[in-house]
Amino acid sequence: MVQQHYTGEDETADEAKVVRMKFGKESLHVPAPAARPGDKPDFSRIAFDDAGAVSRPDPAAAARETFDLSFGLVRVLDDQGKLVGDWAPKIDPETLRKGLGHMMKVRAYDARMLRMHRQGKMSFYMTSTGEEAVAVAAAMALRGEDMLFPSYRQQGLHLVRGADLVDMASHCMSNARDNLMGRQLPVHYTRADLNLFSISGNLCTQFPQAVGWAMASAYKGESAVAASWIGEGSSAEGDFHVACTMAGVYHAPVLLNVVNNQWAISCYQGIAGGEETTFASKAIGYGFPGLRVDGNDFFAVWAATEWAAERARKGKGATLLELVTYRAGAHSTSDDPSRYRPKEEADAWPLGDPVERLKLHLVSIGEWSDDRHEQLGAEIADEVQKKLKEAESYGTLSDHKSVPPETLFDDIFKEMPKNLKRQREEYLSLR
Amino acid sequence: MPQQNMIQALRSAQDVLLERDPNVVIFGEDVGYFGGVFRTTDGLQEKYGKHRVFDAPITESGIVAAALGMGVNDLRPIAEIQFADYIFPGFDQIISELSRLRYRSAGQYWVPVTIRSPWGGGIHGGQTHSQSPEAFFTHIPGVKVVVPSTPYEAKGLLISSVEDDDPVIFFEPKRLYNGPFDGDWQGTAKSWSAHPGGDVPEGHYTIPLSQAKVVRPGAAATILVYGTMVHVAQAAVEVSGIDAEIIDLRTLVPLDLDTIVWSVQKTGRCVIIHEAPQTSGFGAELSAAVQEECFWHLEAPIQRVAGWDTHYPHAHEWDYFPSQARITRALERVMEA
After folding, report:
1. How far A94 CA lies from chain B's nearest CA (Å)?
2. Closest CA in chain B for residue A242
3. Domain presence at residue A422
4. Interchain CB distance below 8 Å, A246 and B89
5. Do the beta carbons of residue A248 and residue A214 sit within 8 Å?
6. What ipTM goes with this model?
7. Residue A195 — left, alpha, or beta (φ > 0 → left; ψ -120 to 50 → alpha)?
8. What confidence tens digit (pLDDT) does each residue in B62-85 have?
9. Is B57 in Cβ contact with A249 (below 8 Å)?
10. Rounded to two decimals, what is the model's pTM?
11. In a domain, A45, yes or no
12. CATH number, domain at A271?
């Protein structure tokens, strides 16, 4: 049955009906990517400024003076590996080599974990291949006191903050060493001791929570800021609007990062609202800066993060950062990207590979070489292999070595209520 | 002892909490300068400053989420949702986040957040200012659900809720704000000043979040009830002349099953009352629990008196709202067998 629609009482009603029938459903605009499987990769719709093209305002500048940054691209490294423009941060070579090592380690860890997933050692995995700089450079530019509210593709934050790969992999395999006691899907890491918040699995919920955390920091008069990460796809959630509203209203010292990696599973960024504008520009309506940043440029991510953190610490409130990058791998182990995008797309991505770009810079200034790079790669591969082997010694999903299952009744409340005690007894009586 | 209505008692509780703990903050729609649409935060911003008692944008999801973030960062926020009917934009943050943060982080993070919200019918509020959505929140593990029935209870239970290290949803029966209500909507409005529940001590006191209260001892049957219906049930018992024991649950989660079982095993008969629609209401859980624990003591089928399985009507509010007559009939039925 069709619901009754008001069509007016005059004779134009029939005419309107005819128009609707003629254009039918085709008149509804549904965004589509420039290229699907079999097509040549095409990023011509996306604007990429040259390195150094946008200037860096004072971090304490009025928000309205920053609004053009939402449509440019903060980009420091040019194609020859040179630093260009006034966004270029001063980072010593030793720190840069550390950053390079972190990114390489994330990539090596991801690759090996993916293999272990195929061997049945965990139920699920998500790589961050191609977007390692987003998490690594941000974590290095922030302070340890800053609270991080990641989504599921920022494992680099954990590595930079010193999380041991044995612990990370143990969580993913839900083994006896899993600090989440087998309660969370893999890659939903939590480390309160490293100021890394619990990853929800529901999308964007952590964005307004980070705002609340930041409000509390401001309330207490502390210098710590909060930072959170979502993908461009989940910026369509109500909680994105909610977070931006709250952050704008209370000048919360928070960095709201939208990782625009072009794909939300099979939906290109236009489906989330990126077709007619940038994700960074959404900040304008909420009254705070939105920086569009080259997410594959270690320096640009660092510089933009540092700028936004300094702004927040000065009491000037929130910044939205759109990190333009490309998800080179699948969304997760549950999807096959060749079904929805051209296979060659990752290689054609105009902003390149964050690891290669930083390497090129270091080599160009005489602080790195192909030999050293190869050697570091081998050392990392060796370390990752050893760590993950050790993690396996605590059990994998397939050998069912986990924390005692009766712990599933713990941590619902601080003190276990009687109904749960009864249920636990019932469970234990049948074991 | 000073006489207070429930609004004054709730305000007093929040005053005590703000005074004692600098980490307590209060925020919500209209709670700051104006003092709340029901005046439960009246004067608190002036007394403690706008950084401690402040207005929030109209975003229940944002209010709950921000409270969670604050709770993780050492604060002990009291978030007001202006009407329980408005809680649903914040539902995901309660169900998917607040309730399970302690669990999913294996105890690394927890949230001492209290969500206060005016609840229930009887004020001619229509279908979006009258609902009783408690059952949704009792179904999800990890949140405590509290419903007071007098000013004294309201203050003691609210202080306990805020001092609790787990999230608490504190539903305030708004028909009871200004006086006890026995269901006689045509009668003269009563004041708390003539009711023992209006005796509210000054300063700090608590009521445990795990104990039901026998508000009327009786031998013939057990009535399980909370919120506004506690008073309607009391009136119905007086009218019916049936010597029913009335148990005010006060805290739905955690549930004081011991007191319920103790009473029903004694009386052998049970009537369950709430305003929310009957199907999948909290009464269904109570009925199942009583059946499991007291089956061999029961002399008659358990009776439920609840809102109809309709939405809450405006013009026909008193045809919907469980009446003394319906409770009396249920008591008679439970006594028949």
Report:
1. 34
2. B62
3. yes
4. no
5. no
6. 0.96
7. left
8. 999 999 999 999 999 999 999 999
9. yes
10. 0.96
11. no
12. 3.40.50.970
Does residue A47 belong to any structural domain of this protein?
no
Give yes or no: residues A297 and A155 share one domain: yes
Quickly state the pLDDT bin for A121 (edges 50, 70, 90): very high
Question: Do A414 and A271 fall within a single domain?
Answer: no
Looking at residues A289-309, what average pLDDT do you find?
98
Overall number of domains in chain A? 2
Same domain, A117 and A235: yes
**Domain range for A418:** 405-431
Within 8 A of B75 by CB-CB distance, chain A residues are 216, 219
Indicate the pLDDT class of residue A7, thresholds 50, 70 and 90.
Answer: low
pLDDT at A17 (0 to 100): 60
Same domain, A335 and A392: yes
Q: Is A210 on the interface with B (CB under 8 A)?
A: yes
Pick A212's closest partner by Cβ from B69, B103, B164.
B69
- Looking at the partner chain, which of A179, A207, A208 has a beta carbon nearest the beta carbon of B106? A179
A–B interface: beta-carbon pairs under 8 A: 141
Nearest chain B residue to A246, by CA:
B62
Nearest CB to B104 within list A198, A213, A226: A198
**Which 3 state secondary structure label does DSSP give A57?**
coil
> Per-residue pLDDT for B227 more than 80?
yes
Band of the pLDDT at B278, cuts 50, 70, 90?
A: very high
Q: Is residue A273 part of a domain?
A: yes
Asked if residues B12 and B4 have their Cβ atoms less than 8 Å apart, the reply is yes
Residues A176 and A287 in one domain: yes
Give the DSSP H/E element, type plus range, for residue B270.
Answer: strand B270-277
Please report, in angstroms and rounded to a whole number, the separation of the first and last CA atoms in chain A: 54
| Structure confidence by residue, pLDDT tens digits, A199-239 | 999 999 999 999 999 999 999 999 999 999 999 999 999 99
Residue A16 pLDDT > 80, yes or no? no
What is the C-alpha to C-alpha distance for residues A63 and A290, in angstroms, rounded to an integer? 9
Minimal Cα–Cα distance from B230 to chain A, Å? 24
Cβ under 8 Å to B: A residues 244-263: 245-246, 249
* Residue matched to tokens 């987003």: A134
A275 plus A298 within the same structural domain: yes
pLDDT at residue number A24? 59
Task: Report the amino acid identity of residue A326.
Answer: Y
User: Listing from the earlier edge strand, what are the strands of the sheet with B270-277?
Assistant: B213-216, B244-248, B221-225, B270-277, B303-307
**Shared domain check, A430 and A395:** no
**Which member of B51, B124, B129, B274 is catalytic?**
B129
| A417 Cβ under 8 Å from any chain B Cβ | yes
Mutant choice from B61, B140, B259, B282 vs A, greatest count of A C-beta within 10 A: B61
What domains does chain B contain, in order, with CATH numbers? 6-198 (3.40.50.970), 213-336 (3.40.50.920)
The pLDDT of A299-328, averaged and rounded, is 98
Q: What is the DSSP string of A312-331?
A: HHTT---EEEEEE----S-S
Which pLDDT score is estimated for A26?
72
What is the pLDDT at residue A18? 57
Judging by beta carbons within 10 Å of its beta carbon (0-12, 13-18, 19+), is residue A146 exposed, middle or buried?
Answer: buried
Task: Give the residue from A167, A174, A215 with the most B CB atoms within 10 Å of its CB, the best one to mutate.
Answer: A215
Is B129 catalytic? The answer is yes
Structure tokens at B193: 């000043």
Q: Do residues A294 and A414 both lie within one domain?
A: no
CA distance A211 to chain B (A): 6
Q: Do A419 and B254 touch (CB under 8 A)?
A: yes
